[in-house]
Amino acid sequence: MVEGGRGARRLGQYQGAVGRGQDAIIDVVKASGLRGRGGAGFPTGMKWSFMPKEPKPGKPNFLVINADESEPR
Hints:
Elements: H1 4-18, H2 22-32, H3 44-49
Helix pairs in contact: 1-2
C-alpha cells in the first residue's frame, strides 16, 4: 500500500524505471533500501542483480522465491 506523498513519489520512480529495462529497475530498488523479510534482511536489489543479464542457449535461468512469510520454528 502506498500512503502519502513520499510513497506516491516512490511508486512513480518504480513505474518510470519499468520502461528503461532491467538495470534501471534494479537500481531503483537498490536505492530504495528495500530488504527481504527474513531474519537476515538481505537487500532485495542486490539479490535481483545476481540474475544473469542475458539468456544462454541450453541453460535456463530460474529465480526461486519463498513466498511464505512465516519464520521457521
